[in-house]
Amino acid sequence: SSWWSHVEMGPPDPILGVTEAFKRDTNSKKMNLGVGAYRDDNGKPYVLNCVRKAEAMIASKKMDKEYLPIGGLADFTRASAELALGENSEVIKSGRFVTVQGISGTGSLRIGANFLQRFFKPSRDVYLPKPSWGNHTPIFRDAGMQLQAYRYYDPKTCSLDFSGAMDDISKIPEKSIILLHACAHNPTGVDPRQEQWKELAATVKKRNLLVYFDMAYQGFASGDINRDAWAVRHFIDQGINIILSQSFAKNMGLYGERAGAFTVICKDAEEAKRVESQLKILIRPMYSNPPVNGARIASMILNTPDLRKEWLVEVKGMADRIISMRNQLVSNLKKEGSSHNWQHITDQIGMFCFTGLKPEQVERLMKEFSIYMTKDGRISVAGVSSGNVAYLAHAIHQVTK
Amino acid sequence: AYRTDEGQPWVLPVVKKVEQLIANDNSLNHEYLPILGLPEFRANASRIALGDDSPAIKENRVGSVQSLGGTGALRIGAEFLRRWYNGNNNTATPVYVSAPSWENHNSVFMDAGFKDIRTYHYWDAAKRGLDLQGLLNDMENAPESSIFILHACAHNPTGTDPSPEQWKQIAAVMKRRSLFPFFDSAYQGFASGSLDKDAWAVRFFVSEGFELFCAQSFSKNFGLYNERVGNLTVVGKDADNVQRVLSQMEKIVRTTWSNPPSQGARIVATTLSSPQLFDEWYGNVKTMADRVLLMRSELRSRLEALGTPGTWNHITEQIGMFSFTGLNPKQVEYMVKEKHIYLMASGRINMCGLTTKNLDYVAKSIHEAVTKIQ
């Protein structure tokens, strides 16, 4: 007999599971629009030139492999904070923040979630937008928090339900936690406009909510790192001491190197020191200290002026290609003769697009056309290329006409 | 961390070579690994722990989860056990940690949600060795299904391991009392210079039919400390059980780090799957192990030559990076303050800190501490 007889088979991970099903498909026209990893116009993974250069520089320095501090590589965490907050941020100057290296976005979110569970006394409730990234819920749940939701996406218009969001948020109990996607909302691609962000900030401030920003696409959304960080910086300017999770998986293409950061903005530098000590106590029994490779690459890029310049060009290049694919998808759908309004495809921003397709239609796309996406109709636009956008438009038209 | 005879960190020559191979391989990119990690790494890592001819591997009842170092492997294992072992979400299952142990063991299991973490007798300070009887008594008296964290080799911090005969006795009690073995293997190869010898205990338990976990670290034996390379090896009754266990571990990984870092796993996988690179690695490992063994024997012989009061055979009988010298806190204070030799209040020294240049000084200092301070 086994200790594990009663252990149930876990369901396949919905997002990464899509890739696995795709891999098994033998159709030559297959398209993987599941996981959010950037592809170039040939459908290939793209290793940024600035990353290759950074790697070569790192290799030439012949560094040792001694453990990083628990909080990670200091040059990396400092540069991450500056990237998010802006170099002239008063927060940076006063030192009233702590940034620790995290295992990409997931690891950073989890550190934050654990920190909230242990130290945020007023509430267990984390309010997520409806919908949110599928992994947000289990991350917070496993950390011991409870999940609530606020209206966000309007399926009728495939855009932001701003009045619904404002209505719900204005009713959130004081001192609850609200999670906001800083830019390129995942999975919908629907972001508030700056005017709407201003109203959100005012409401959130009035309700005295703890704001948790998830920024996984800085630079990758609009092509402009400052524009993509606008909401984060605006909230801080309004005196809201946010907490923030960053990922360098997409904007630097460092996916498997797991480069990320978690930041807490504090009252003052002394509070930041105390918070830092507690974050380290949380990290140590999870994995002791973080992996060096991705952080070193990101740090080299952010801290070397030539590489940083090159990176900004490359990240804009990725963003521009995605925007171009959105445009081509819509024009191809029109060419197919679709009578539906596909404007949301170009209104939305970032890696993902909420097509509005229903589960049955998604199923047909998979079975009849070997086009793979998550059940909610989310496509990764990065998986679209000039070579397959017509096929995609054709297939979508077939299942929606 | 390991240090050379010049007191410097050491990036293994085979690691440098493999990193170059990886850098020159244009087919490689930075894409996400699967949630459970790089398949070639996982299979090779578990093979190293269990042996090429492991019946468990042949019978397809071994699973592996690439983890962030040994700590990450321990944590995933602990989170799984808390959810699925001995009932569902049974946080009351006692977890036994050796006295003393690596202090992070306690925190890992506590943060995984276990409420009842206890110690089992291990170090006998009076005789400077293993308190086997105390250990076995604790196992006899432990509630059935209790979890025991066992150090596979090179016990941290005492350097004192059970002998094969003693392991047999431990296994017999654990089997009879239905206790769960969770091995922590951070020094395979690094301890004795032999991978097989250092894995003897784990393999013995497997041959005795136990279901067990083994958290492996490649930090020391590959010198890959900051790349965070670890593996949780799961040995189950059959393939079906292992498959279900892994599917649940996947869910745990997904909310902890989503998928593991690729660089270190690639280095290890490339090395272990090439016979030539494997031999080079083995040579590098032996270099490290031999230097530590040499420092042990040199320190002991100097102390005996000086006629330092007490017995010093434990220095060479202990194994691995650490040694419990037997110095008391006052003597340690003397070492630190008067001789500027830094060691833990427990009397634990890191053997890697010894070099041919400082052996005489350290031996003389220990001699002074022991003769001057009681």
UniProtKB/TrEMBL annotation, chain A:
Presence of keyword Translocase: no
GO CC, alphabetical: mitochondrial matrix
Keyword field: Aminotransferase, Mitochondrion, Pyridoxal phosphate, Transferase
The EC number(s) this enzyme carries: 2.6.1.1
Major location (coarse): mitochondrion
Keyword Transferase: yes
Family annotation (SUPFAM superfamilies): PLP-dependent transferases
Catalytic reaction equation(s): L-aspartate + 2-oxoglutarate = oxaloacetate + L-glutamate
Organism domain of life: Eukaryota
Span of domain Aminotransferase class I/classII large: 29-396
Protein name per its UniProtKB record: Aspartate aminotransferase
Species in which this protein is naturally found: Tyrannus savana
Lineage: Eukaryota, Metazoa, Chordata, Craniata, Vertebrata
From TrEMBL, chain B:
GO MF entry, a single one: L-aspartate:2-oxoglutarate aminotransferase activity
Matching Gene3D superfamilies: Aspartate Aminotransferase, domain 1, Type I PLP-dependent aspartate aminotransferase-like (Major domain)
One GO biological process term: aspartate biosynthetic process
Location within or outside the cell: Cytoplasm
InterPro entries: Aminotransferase_I/II_large (IPR004839), Asp_trans (IPR000796), NHTrfase_class1_PyrdxlP-BS (IPR004838), PyrdxlP-dep_Trfase (IPR015424), PyrdxlP-dep_Trfase_major (IPR015421), PyrdxlP-dep_Trfase_small (IPR015422)
Cofactor annotation: pyridoxal 5'-phosphate
Pfam families the UniProt entry points to: Aminotran_1_2
Record key words, sorted: Amino-acid biosynthesis, Aminotransferase, Cytoplasm, Pyridoxal phosphate, Transferase
Residue span, Aminotransferase class I/classII large domain: 2-366
Enzyme Commission no: 2.6.1.1
Any one annotated GO CC term: cytosol
Main localization (coarse): cytoplasm
Catalytic activity annotation: L-aspartate + 2-oxoglutarate = oxaloacetate + L-glutamate; L-cysteine + 2-oxoglutarate = 2-oxo-3-sulfanylpropanoate + L-glutamate; 3-sulfino-L-alanine + 2-oxoglutarate = 3-sulfinopyruvate + L-glutamate; (2S)-2-aminobutanoate + 2-oxoglutarate = 2-oxobutanoate + L-glutamate
Class of enzymatic activity (EC top level): transferase
Note: In eukaryotes there are cytoplasmic, mitochondrial and chloroplastic isozymes.
Subunit record text: Homodimer.
Family under the similarity heading: Belongs to the class-I pyridoxal-phosphate-dependent aminotransferase family.
Identification of the protein by name: Aspartate aminotransferase
Organism listed in the record: Tyrannus savana
